[in-house]
Design goal:
It is a single chain. The chain has 464 residues and is α/β, with parallel strands linked by helices. The protein has 16 helices and 14 strands. The strands form 3 sheets. Strands 1, 2, 3, 4, 5, 6 and 7 form a 7-stranded mixed beta sheet that branches. Strands 8, 9, 10 and 11 form a 4-stranded antiparallel beta sheet that branches. A 3-stranded antiparallel beta sheet has the order 12-13-14. The protein is globular and about 55 Å long. The protein starts with a strand and ends in an 11-residue tail after the last helix. 46% of the residues are buried.
Length: 464
């Protein structure tokens, strides 16, 4: 790459999982919209045709008359080819297919375990990790061998165990994980200011927060707007909407959205523990005993929906249809930003302006009562070739026990996945709070069936 005044040229970005129809489009649009960066994006996906189509969309974005930056898009025939000499590596892969995800999410329903997401913790999160982490290990070895100095940005779930695996395989890797869940909570605080104070038009970037915890089970220990502490106001907000839930706008109804919620879980957790839970209710509920997720009716009473995999399959059809329209020119490409911070973090690491954001990296003491080396999510300062985590202190009593249970389980998950240790994996499976009401015999049968349903994507040792 070449630095030229306040601009970086000839940047090399490897996008692993280049067949994505969501993250990739958003990321490529963000690059196109930024006049301070230009270079080459190498797309690699095991589905080469999907990567080829994304490359065509990327080229069309770059040729857009309103494009602020011109990028070249190439499709690589191997992971090694994509990574060779890369300055940055973006990982956004789908481990398996929606058929495997369907087993992850819905098979546990036969023993009364319902999952609203099923990609991070619980039985679905564990099995997803078992097939994902060997792939992450392969990527880590390739980064070590072909792009040892590259910064690696991961968007793949389960986030915590993915990042932990990258460091376990290549300890010197410069990897971090990005998640937008905290952004959603900042937006909720903006809506709170409008609802309670009549202050409209506040951007989420104006809400200053301190973040602690682990991915999808993240907590705000402070939040302010223009120097004003928002916690007292949030208590009023939570008390006002604890029964009805909060939905902004008559058309923004959580019941009609597979990913939305009415924030009742967040409000309840705040009123019980005194911190703002900073993830969507669908994720938060899965980290806890079945207080909010005993069955679909309980979830509905708490104001959120279960995201059925059948819906995801239909959504994929819609995305493929849109991809065809974009490629044919039937639908015009819009240069609308994704709202993610990936390209902004790249700029900060290149020295084009410091940035503070929440990030998933190893615990170097920023969370003082969680194990060193465990993956935690806190704020960090991004600046040229450096990520400096902000000290978050200790997670308060009560919440610490809830978080620690998952930290230890995630550490064991990584060990089980990389060593193909079936018994350790089963113990992690049964130790999860979602499985607390399931007997050992039923749990063993469920575990064996879920492993069988994903064997195609597991290492050979699992077939022994």
């Amino acid at each position: 790459m070449i630095y030229e005044k306040n601009r970086v040229k000839d940047l090399k970005i490897a996008y692993v999982g280049g067949g994505s129809r969501g993250w990739a489009w958003g990321f490529m649009t963000d690059l196109t919209n930024d006049g301070q960066l230009c270079g080459t994006v190498r797309l690699y996906d095991i589905d080469r045709e999907a990567a080829e189509k994304n490359a065509r969309i990327g080229r069309r974005l770059s040729e857009h008359p309103e494009a602020k930056s011109r990028w070249s898009y190439e499709v690589s025939g191997s992971l090694e080819e994509a990574l060779a000499g890369a300055d940055f590596v973006v990982i956004s892969i789908l481990p398996g297919t929606f058929d495997e995800m369907e087993s992850d999410v819905h098979l546990p329903e036969r023993v009364g375990v319902y999952q609203s997401v099923g990609d991070t913790v619980g039985p679905g999160g564990l099995v997803r990790a078992l097939r994902t982490l060997p792939m992450m290990a392969e990527i880590a070895r390739a980064v070590r061998d072909y792009a040892p100095n590259a910064w690696v940005i991961n968007y793949t779930n389960p986030m915590t165990t993915c990042i932990r695996t990258l460091y376990a395989v290549y300890p010197e890797i410069k990897a971090f994980g990005c998640c937008h869940e905290v952004f959603g909570t900042q937006k909720l605080l903006c809506a709170m200011l409008e609802d309670l104070c009549g202050i409209a038009g506040v951007g989420r970037e104006e809400i200053k927060t301190s973040v602690t915890g682990i991915n999808h089970f993240t907590w705000l220990t402070s939040a302010s707007y223009r120097g004003t502490d928002l916690f007292p106001l949030y208590r009023t907000f939570a008390q006002k909407y604890r029964e009805s839930g909060f939905v902004k706008g008559k058309d923004d109804n959580w019941m009609n959205n597979s990913f939305d919620c009415s924030h009742k879980v967040k409000f309840d957790l705040f009123l019980r523990y005194g911190l703002i839970a900073a993830a969507g209710d669908r994720h938060l509920a899965e980290f806890l005993p079945p207080w909010y997720l005993k069955n679909p009716e309980t979830a509905r009473a708490w104001g959120f929906s279960l995201t059925h995999v059948a819906w995801r399959k239909e959504d994929l059809k819609r995305r493929l249809a849109r991809q065809a329209r974009l490629l044919s020119g039937e639908e015009a490409l819009e240069l609308k930003g994704s709202g993610e911070e990936g390209h902004m973090l790249i700029k900060a690491l290149l020295g084009l302006g410091d940035l503070v954001s929440n990030v998933n990296i190893p615990n170097r003491g920023q969370v003082e009562n969680l194990p060193l080396g465990a993956m935690v999510e806190t704020n960090a300062l991004f600046r040229r070739d450096e990520i400096s985590p902000a000290l978050a202190g200790a997670i308060p009593a009560g919440i610490d026990a809830l978080v620690m249970r998952h930290v230890l389980g995630q550490e064991a998950t990584v060990k089980a996945a990389l060593s193909c240790d079936r018994e350790l994996a089963f113990n992690v499976f049964m130790n999860d709070p979602q499985m607390g009401g399931v007997g050992l015999a039923d749990g063993r049968a469920l575990f064996d069936d879920m492993i069988h349903n994903t064997l195609t994507y597991l290492p050979e040792a699992w077939r022994a």
